[in-house]
Amino acid sequence: MGKLAIYPGSFDPITNGHLDIIERASKIFDEVIVAVFNNEAKSPLFTVEERIHLLEDSTSYLPNIVIDSSDHLLMDYAKEKNADAIVRGLRAVSDFEYEMQITSMNKKLNPDIETLFMMTNNQYSFLSSSMVKEAAKYHGDISGLVPDVVDEALKVKYKKV
C-alpha cells in the first residue's frame, strides 16, 4: 500500500496556486485526495458540486489525484481514508501562524497523521481564491491565475460571457 495524502481546502475556486501544490504533492505521494471542505465562515460562490467538477476538470491529467468532499472534521476524514499526511500550502509568513495553530490541534486529535507544508511557487505567493473572485467580479483579466475552466465558470457566475 502506497502513501496517501489529503490536500484539504474550500477551493472556491481552485487557483493555479492550488494546482501547483496538487501537482507537486502528486510527485511525492502515491495518491493525493483533494478534499473540498465547506468553511462555514465563508460564503461560497460555487457549490460543493461545482467545486468538485472544477477540480476534476483541472486535475484530469494527474492520474493519482482523487477529488472528494467532506463535511466531517478533517482528522476524522483522514483517519477514515487511512491517510499518512495532510498537505497544506503556504503563501507567505502570514499564513504560517494560522496553519501552525490548525496543525497543533490536528496533531492533538490524531498524532499518527503528519502535516506537510509546501511553499507556494513565488509566482503565486499573492494569489488567493478571494482575490480571484474579486477581480473576476469586476471583469478583471484573471487568465494565468486560474485554470481555463475556472476562468469560464467565473465569467458565467459574473455574467460576462
From TrEMBL:
Q: In which pathway does it act?
A: Cofactor biosynthesis; coenzyme A biosynthesis; CoA from (R)-pantothenate: step 4/5
Residues covered by the Cytidyltransferase-like domain: 6-134
Its cellular-component GO annotations read: cytoplasm
Q: Which domain of life is it from?
A: Bacteria
Q: Where does substrate bind?
A: 10, 42, 74, 88
Report the SUPFAM superfamilies cross-referenced here: Nucleotidylyl transferase
Record site: Transition state stabilizer: 18
Q: What is its EC number?
A: 2.7.7.3
Q: Where does ATP bind?
A: 10-11, 18, 89-91, 99, 124-130
Q: Name one GO biological process term.
A: coenzyme A biosynthetic process
Q: Does the keyword Nucleotidyltransferase apply?
A: yes
Where is this gene product found?
Cytoplasm
Pfam families attached to this UniProt entry: CTP_transf_like
Q: Which reaction does it catalyse?
A: (R)-4'-phosphopantetheine + ATP + H(+) = 3'-dephospho-CoA + diphosphate
UniProt keyword annotation of Transferase present? yes
Class of this enzyme: transferase
The UniProt entry, under Gene3D superfamilies, shows: HUPs (3.40.50.620)
Q: Which UniProt keywords apply?
A: ATP-binding, Coenzyme A biosynthesis, Cytoplasm, Magnesium, Nucleotide-binding, Nucleotidyltransferase, Transferase
Q: How does it assemble?
A: Homohexamer.
Q: Which PANTHER family match?
A: PHOSPHOPANTETHEINE ADENYLYLTRANSFERASE
Q: What does this protein do?
A: Reversibly transfers an adenylyl group from ATP to 4'-phosphopantetheine, yielding dephospho-CoA (dPCoA) and pyrophosphate.
> What family is it from?
Belongs to the bacterial CoaD family.
Give the protein name, as stated in the record: Phosphopantetheine adenylyltransferase
Report the source organism.
Answer: Oceanobacillus halophilus
Organism lineage reads as: Bacteria, Bacillati, Bacillota, Bacilli, Bacillales
Gene this protein is translated from:
coaD
